[in-house]
Amino acid sequence: MEFFDLKPVEEARSIFLTAAGKRRMPVEHVPLTAAVGRVTAAPVQAKSDLPGFARSTVDGFAVRAADTFGASEGLPAYLRLQGEILMGHAPMVPLRPGEAWKISTGGALPEGADAVVMVEHTEFLAEDEVGIRRPVSPGDNVVQRGEDCPAGGELLPAGQLIRAQEAAFLQSAGVLTVPVFRRPRVAIISTGDELVEPEVEPAPGQIRESNAAALAALVRRDGGEPRYLGLARDQEEDIRQRLQQGMQDDVVLISGGSSVGARDLTARLISELGAPGILVHGVKLRPGKPTILAVAGDVPVVGLPGHPVSAQVTYGLFVTPLLRQLQGLPPEPPFRPTVRARMTKNVASAPGRTDCVRVRLIRDGAEVLAEPVHGRSGLISTLVKADGLLIIPSAKEGVLAGEMVEVELLV
Amino acid sequence: MEFFDLKPVEEARSIFLTAAGKRRMPVEHVPLTAAVGRVTAAPVQAKSDLPGFARSTVDGFAVRAADTFGASEGLPAYLRLQGEILMGHAPMVPLRPGEAWKISTGGALPEGADAVVMVEHTEFLAEDEVGIRRPVSPGDNVVQRGEDCPAGGELLPAGQLIRAQEAAFLQSAGVLTVPVFRRPRVAIISTGDELVEPEVEPAPGQIRESNAAALAALVRRDGGEPRYLGLARDQEEDIRQRLQQGMQDDVVLISGGSSVGARDLTARLISELGAPGILVHGVKLRPGKPTILAVAGDVPVVGLPGHPVSAQVTYGLFVTPLLRQLQGLPPEPPFRPTVRARMTKNVASAPGRTDCVRVRLIRDGAEVLAEPVHGRSGLISTLVKADGLLIIPSAKEGVLAGEMVEVELLV
Questions:
Q1: pLDDT-based confidence at residue A22 (cuts at 50, 70, 90)
Q2: Which of A59, A237, B85, B162 is the Cys-Cys partner for B166 at CB 3.0 to 4.6 Å?
Q3: Cis bond before residue B287 (omega within 30° of 0)
Q4: How far away is chain A from the Cα of B24, in angstroms, using its nearest Cα?
Q5: At what angle are helices A236-246 and A260-271 packed, to 10 degrees?
Q6: What is the dihedral of CA B142, B144, B147, B150, to 10 degrees?
Q7: Domain at A339-409: CATH code
C-alpha cells in the first residue's frame, strides 16, 4: 500500500465522502444560545404569525390609504386625529373613515387602518386634526401580520446553519430550544517515537508533540469536539489500543508515524479496524502526499502526515468537508470567500497534482500581493508567517508571477 | 440631537474609535487550549532552540555532503553504513568521513553529518554499504537546529491572533500558558414598551425581544463575552438603572427605543453617563441612521437602532472594529475575504451615504450572481435569506446591474 496508486485530491475526497456516506450525527435539542454555529436537524415551524399584528415601520399617522388619495402639499387631506397608539398596546377602537391615529415605529395598526403616513409628510394643525400632504397606498410603511413568517410557516429548513440572524429569528418566534445535529466527537491520536507530551522537556533527539494542538483548534472551528487520546509509540499494541479507543468516537484522526516502518504499521492497523477499510493511501498533493483515508464500520479514519504543515493542509481538504457533511451541511460551502491578490513569483505545480502554497499577503496601494512563504513543511513557523493558502488545483500547472489569484485566509 | 448632523460612516467610525482610545483589555494568562481565537498581549519568546537538533526531513541516509560530490547513477559514491538512527534518540557516535547512517524523517543527524540523501537516490548494496547515486549539498533535506525559532527568538509578537498554527507553534516550544487580552465584557440592553422576554407569549401589540440573541452571537464571534441585562421599559429610571449597571462592563450596547420620545430619552440618558459623552448621533447609513456612538469615562456606549437588520448592520460597522481594537488587533482586518459576484439589479445609493445591501448569492456556471433581498429592515427574515452584505461606500453612487461586486459573507 505504499503509494502504489496516488489519487488526485478531488477523486480522493469524493471516494472518502461517499464512503462516509449518508451518516449524520444524532439529533439533540439545545437551548438557542448554544445553537449558534450549529445546524438545524429538522425544519422549524412558527407557532403563530410573526409579527402577530400589522406594525408601523415609521413614526407617523395610521390611516385608511383611500382617505389620502389626491392629497398634496398645496391641498392636504385633513383627518380627525383620534389619539395616540401606545407602544405595546393593541388599539381598542377601530379606525373609521376620515380618521387618523398617531403611531410610533413598531406600533400596532388599529383595525380599519391599512397604511401609515410618515410624520415628515404631515402637518399637525390642532389637537384633533392632522393634515396629510402626500398620499399613501394600502400597505405603505406597514409590516403585515405574518409577513416575517405566517403561523405554521417554515422559520428555518433542516440543514440550516444558525447564524446571528437565525438566532434572532427563532427567538422572535419564541423557539428557545432547537433541534440540531450533535457535535461530531473527533479522536486525535499522535504517533511517533521522537515525540514527547508538551509539558515534558525533550531529551536530545526528541521534540514536543504539537499537531494535536492545531488539530483540536481546527476541529473546534469546524463545530466538532476534539478528544486527545495521547501519544502512541510506534508500536503495534500502543497504536492499536488507541485506534480502538478512538472507534468509540465519530471520527478518528491519527497523525505522524514519521518513519516508513511506522507509516506502514499505522496503515496496517487502520485496515484491521474493519470494512470497508482504507480507501485512499497517498494523494497527489503537496504537501500531504502520505495521507490515508479510511472508513471502518461507520467511523471515518484519517491518517494525517506528521509534518505540521502537511497535517493542517490535509485536514482542510479532507476533514473539514467530512465534519460539515456529518453535521448536515454540504461538504463544500457553496460560496468560498477569498482575497484576490497578485502573485509575486512563479509557482510550479505538476499536472494532476494539487499544490497548497502558503502565502503572505502584502497591501500595495489598491492591490494585494501574494508572496509565497518558503520553507519546509516540517517548519510550523512557515504557517505562522502565512496569511492564507493558495490552492493550485490538479487541472492547473502552476501560477505565474503577476497572475491574479484567489487566496483563502487561514483562520 | 435628533439627526442635526448626520456623519458619514467612515468619519463616525474614526471619531468613535479615536475617542475609545488606546484602551486595551487587561492581560490574563490562559492555558494554550483557551488561547485559540485570542490575541497575544506580549511577545512570546522561545526558551530553547526549536527544533533542539538538526532533523532529517526525509527517509534516507545521513552523510557528509562532501562525500557525495560527483556521485551519479553510473558511478555511485559508496559509503560505509554504520547503522540506523532510532527515532527519538540522539546518535551516540559522530559520523566520520566516508560513513553513512540510515535515518528516518524526523530523525536526529549525528555530529559530523550535514545532509541527508533520500532513499530513492541510493542503492542498498550490502549490510554495511550504501551507494549514493545523486550528490547533495550541505543542508539538503535537513531542518537545522533552531530553524523554526532560535532560543530567545520571538515565537509570536504582541498583537498576534492565535490560530491553529500559532497554537501548534507555542505547544512545540513548550509554551502552555499564554498572555492574552481578556475578552471584553459587553453589556446588552434592549428597550421598548412593545417588547416582552422571549419566553413570554406576546399580548396583542407586543413582540418578543430578539436583538439580544443576535447581538450576543455577534459579540461571541468577535471574541467578547455578552452579558444580557434584560429589557428596559421606555422609562427614565428603568433605562438609567440598566445603563449604570452596564458601566461595570467594558462596552455597553443598548438597542431599541422605537418611538421618537424613547430615542430622545435613551440619547439623553447616555449623555448623562459621563464625558466625553455622545460623539455621533445619526449616521449617513442605510439601514442604521439613528445610531448613537458615545464614550462615557473609558466605556464605549453604542445606541443601536431597534430594527433587527439595522442593529446587525450597525453592529458590524462600529462594534466589531471596537472589539478588535480593545483586544489589541487593528480595528479593520488588513485583508477582508469576499465573494466576487455579478449584481443582478441596479441599486441606488445617495452620494455621501453608505448602503448595506442584503444579497442572496446564486451560482450561475462559473459565475456567482448577487441578488438584492428586498424587504424592510424590520423583517429579520430578510437577513435569514441573505448570504452576505454588499457595502456601497459613501463615495460610490449605487451599483449597476451586471457590475462585479465584492460581497462579505454573513457569518
A1: confident
A2: B162
A3: yes
A4: 23
A5: 40
A6: 160
A7: 2.40.340.10
Which residue on chain A is closest to B201 by alpha carbon?
A174
A-proximal residues of B, 225-284, CB under 8 Å: 234, 258-262
Q: In chain B, positions 40-79, which contact chain A (CB-CB < 8 Å)?
A: 51-53, 55, 57, 59
The CATH number assigned to the domain with range A27-50+147-181 reads 3.90.105.10
In this predicted complex, what is the ipTM?
0.95
- Residue B25 DSSP SS3: coil
CATH class of B55-143: mainly beta
* Spans of chain B below 70 pLDDT: 1-4, 257-259
pLDDT in tens, B234-290: 899 999 999 999 999 999 999 986 667 778 899 999 999 999 999 999 999 999 999
The DSSP result for B96-126, as a single string, is: PTTEEEEE-TTPBPPTT--EEEEGGGEEEEE
* Secondary structure (DSSP) of A299-316: EEEEEE-SSHHHHHHHII
CA distance B224 to B26: 13
Mean pLDDT of A47-52: 96
Three cell numbers written together for A116: 401609515
Looking at residue B258, what is its pLDDT?
61
Q: Which pLDDT band holds residue A1 (cuts at 50, 70, 90)?
A: very low
For chain B, what are the domain ranges?
7-26+182-326, 27-50+147-181, 55-143, 339-409
Same CATH topology for A27-50+147-181 and A339-409: the answer is no
Residues 6 or more apart whose Cβ sits within 8 Å of residue A234 = A191, A192, A193, A257, A259, A261, A262, A265, B87
Question: What are the tens digits of pLDDT across the range A177-195?
Answer: 999 999 999 999 999 999 9
H or E element that contains A344: none
Q: CATH fold of A7-26+182-326, please?
A: Molybdenum Cofactor Biosythetic Enzyme; Chain A (3.40.980)
Q: Is the Cβ pair B213, A170 closer than 8 Å? A: yes
Tell me if residue B152 falls in helix, strand or coil: coil
